[in-house]
UniProtKB/TrEMBL annotation, chain A:
Coiled coil: none annotated. Residues 21-51 form the ChsH2 rubredoxin-like zinc ribbon domain. It holds the Pfam family OB_ChsH2_C. This is Zn-ribbon domain-containing OB-fold protein. Residues 58-122 form the ChsH2 C-terminal OB-fold domain. It comes from Belnapia arida. It comes from the Bacteria.
UniProtKB/TrEMBL annotation, chain B:
It comes from Belnapia arida. Residues 250-375 form the Thiolase C-terminal domain. InterPro entries: Thiolase (IPR002155), Thiolase-like (IPR016039), Thiolase_C_2 (IPR055140). This is Thiolase.
Length: 139, 385
């Protein structure tokens, strides 16, 4: 077996999810909104669960978020993330009514409490994939 | 048609549970367990006319069991792809098949080389149930069950004051039971302090909050209740069964209340079918991939209210002489990770009075749960019949 470090997992977007990844590449978090009933949904999927319409618009998220929960990754489940351990994964509530999972930047988990305000940012990883990240607003 | 008491577990079997099965294949392990279960039931392999594979994505398919066991007339073959909820889902599936008269004796078989084969972190990346989190969460570094489930535990802690020491109580009691079992991988005593000193895996889950990777197999025979009367073992009736699926089944992140599992939907249905309440349960085998998952299921089953699980498990409450003996075999945490099929086997042994040093005195009504993937839940209530 090869001893080279495997690369980080990359998404394999479908036609329905590609606008999400294209948005991230431009530094924008795009959410699906049902073109018929207006419900927002995330993660991207072909059908609105509220009205079963497949007519979809994309809207840009406000960039605001609050802490819902989190974990701190210590164990190297994947060799490509070993150098970053430990890292904090925050589950964040967005005012749009959906959630985001992203790494925390510029703070440790000790600072986290449910409801604390966060700001969504964007970072390209070494594979060139742009991902959302979260920072406490300090407010 | 009411399914209650239409089917019974008539045979159980397993292999030695080990760290390393010495290169034996998952098929070889499953065949050994299946033969043990068939022999335990007092039937012949040729009598098997149904197979339910609780983990159909495993390397073993029903056809290989047919070929090796010499089953001449298989009338029903299916799978229950619910991860760790699969074995208990398979009980319901098999019960429905025999109650409908499709077949008479159904083999449920699960076994793997989880320790010496592919590790869980790599396995789940190939499972379709994890496709959504694979696309949207894995790139950020959420890659393994511990990392997907830990935010549920953290949320529970923040909302209800649940502590890591309370999770440790579950690990410690489970270890005590494994030491009594005789076929368990972990046989050295564990203390709360050992748990607290163990390394962090995915905060708040420490090493001793996590289940084992193991090699081994377990098998169960489900028979029509009327066919079970004249078999070798006292029949253990399937009195109540249900499965439940959580909101947002593909992503815990998007689940409105991430402290509520699919089991919360299933439990009232199964208790109603069996005509019993949580207070009637003498022994419970609760799927324990992680300590927190046990605590959450105890709440979702109704043994205590939501948020009260931490207090419920304190003070040895889950021990053999506690208020609710739980995981009397040592569970996935300390016996072996056989995806919960070992939980089904243990409950049957408890209700037969065959559980040896970990026997719960006069156990007559018992419960077994499954938990799989991102929150699927199953339970079966069994009685000595």
């Amino acid at each position: 077996m090869s001893q080279t470090t495997p690369s980080k997992p990359l998404p394999d977007p479908s036609p329905e999810t590609r606008p999400y990844w294209d948005g991230l590449a431009e530094g924008r978090l795009m959410l699906q909104r049902c073109a018929d009933c207006g419900s927002l949904r995330h993660y991207p999927q072909p059908m609105c669960a509220a009205c079963n319409s497949m007519a979809t618009n994309w809207v840009e998220a406000s960039g605001e978020a609050t802490v819902h929960s989190w974990t701190v990754a210590y164990h190297p489940f994947h060799a490509a993330f070993r150098a970053e351990l430990p890292y904090v994964l925050v589950t964040a509530d967005l005012p749009e009514g959906v959630r985001l999972l992203a790494q925390l930047r510029d703070a440790t988990a000790e600072a986290l409490r449910p409801g604390l305000k966060l700001r969504i940012g964007f970072e390209a990883n070494e594979a060139g994939l742009t991902l959302p990240v979260l920072r406490l607003t300090g407010a | 048609m009411q399914l209650a008491n239409k089917a019974a577990v008539t045979g159980v079997g397993d292999t030695d549970y080990t760290r390393d099965a010495g290169g034996r294949s998952a098929l070889s392990l499953q065949l050994e367990a299946a033969l043990n279960a068939i022999s335990d039931a007092g039937i012949r392999p040729q009598d098997i006319d149904g197979i339910v594979m609780p983990s159909p994505s495993s390397p073993v398919v029903a056809e290989e069991l047919v070929t090796n066991l010499g089953i001449p007339d298989l009338r029903f073959s299916t799978g229950t792809p619910l991860g760790g909820a699969g074995p208990v889902a398979a009980l319901q599936c098999a019960a429905a098949a025999v109650a409908a008269g499709i077949c008479s004796h159904v083999l449920l078989s699960l076994g793997r080389t989880g320790r010496t084969g592919q590790k869980i972190g790599a396995r789940i990346q190939q499972m379709p149930q994890f496709r959504i989190v694979g696309e949207f969460e894995a790139p950020s570094g959420a890659l393994a069950p511990a990392q997907y489930y830990a935010p549920m535990a953290r949320r529970h802690m923040e909302m209800f004051g649940t502590t890591s020491r309370q999770l440790a109580e579950i690990a410690v009691t489970t270890r005590q039971h494994a030491i009594l079992n005789g076929n368990a991988r972990m046989t050295t005593p564990l203390t709360v302090e050992d748990h607290q000193a163990s390394r962090m895996i995915a905060d708040p889950l420490r090493l001793y909050d996590c289940s084992l990777e193991s090699d081994g197999a377990a098998a169960v025979i489900v028979s029509a209740a009327d066919r079970a009367c004249d078999l070798r073992q006292p029949r253990i009736l399937l009195a109540g069964m249900a499965e439940g699926h959580p909101d947002s089944p593909s992503a815990i992140t998007q689940r409105g209340d991430m402290t509520r599992l699919g089991l919360a939907k299933a439990a009232p249905r199964a208790f109603a079918m069996a005509g019993v309440t949580p207070a009637d349960i003498d022994v419970a085998e609760i799927y324990d991939c992680f300590t927190y998952i046990v605590l959450c299921q105890l709440e979702d089953l109704g043994f205590c209210g939501k948020g009260e699980g931490g207090a419920f498990v304190e003070g040895g409450a889950l021990g053999l002489h506690g208020r609710l003996p739980v995981n009397t075999h040592g569970g996935l945490l300390s016996q072996a990770h056989i995806a919960g099929m070992n939980h089904v086997v243990e409950l049957v042994r408890q209700l037969r009075g065959e559980a040896g040093r970990a026997q719960v005195p006069d156990a007559e009504v018992g419960l077994v749960t499954g938990y799989g993937d991102l929150g699927d839940g199953t339970l079966a209530i069994m009685t000595r019949g």
